[in-house]
Structures are given as structure tokens and as C-alpha cells.
Design goal:
Layout (H helix, E strand, L loop, with lengths): L9 H46 L6 H15 L8 H4 L3 H29 L1
Helix pairs in contact: 1-2, 1-4
């Protein structure tokens, strides 16, 4: 029997491991954190539009909403577990685009309600 050839040397494998970690950190900083901050901004805006004037709750900042969102995702397991391939496709890029589009739609509906409720006062 022919022995399996080794694809990478130990040094090459270590370099791939380190570079993979660096690329993951860059992806986290350049893509995932800004999308998370955008989602937190949408949620904080909706909170400040509705919860503050009608429920008499305090204002919430984007950073606090970001922390609350991370905490809630930690407790519930986040959305990665519920992601469906039929809806989002195979890539995380399409998942992020659907997340942005869904939050924009939610913000638009909330803005319409906010304007309607404010003009009815």
C-alpha cells in the first residue's frame, strides 16, 4: 500500500493556523462588529422611539444596546443555530446581508409607526 503523502510541513501548517487566526480577527473587526453595531443602533432607535415616551423608561445608548444584544445572544445561543440554508444560502455573507436588510425593513416600519403615532398626539 502506498503511504499517504504529507501535504504540509509542520512549519507550513503552523503558518496556516496563525494566518487563519489573523484573518478571523480581521473579519471580526471589519465585518461582524460593524453589523452588530448597526443592529444595536436600530434596536436602540426603536427603543428610544417607543419605550421612552410611552412606557416612561430611560433612554438607551447604542453601546448599551450592543451589550444587551450580545448578552441575549449568549443566553439564547445566537442566530447561528437557527440559520436555515434554504433562506440564507450557503455563505455567511448572505446571512449578514439578510440581517442588514431585515433590520432596515424593521426600522422603516417602526419609523412609519413612530411618525403616525406622533402626528396622532
Amino acid at each position: 500500500m502506498e503511504e499517504a503523502k504529507q501535504r504540509y510541513s509542520l512549519g507550513e501548517a503552523a503558518a496556516c493556523f496563525v494566518l487563519g487566526g489573523i484573518m478571523s480577527a480581521i473579519l471580526l473587526v471589519l465585518v461582524i462588529v460593524p453589523v452588530g453595531l448597526f443592529v444595536a443602533w436600530v434596536r436602540a432607535t426603536i427603543w428610544n422611539w417607543f419605550a421612552v415616551p410611552y412606557l416612561h423608561l430611560p433612554h438607551i445608548s447604542v453601546w448599551l444596546m450592543y451589550a444587551v444584544t450580545l448578552f441575549a445572544a449568549t443566553l439564547t445561543g445566537g442566530r447561528a443555530r437557527t440559520m436555515k440554508k434554504e433562506l440564507y444560502g450557503e455563505t455567511w455573507g448572505s446571512y449578514l446581508l439578510w440581517s442588514i436588510a431585515g433590520n432596515l425593513l424593521t426600522l422603516g416600519v417602526a419609523w412609519g409607526l413612530h411618525i403616525t403615532v406622533l402626528t396622532a398626539r
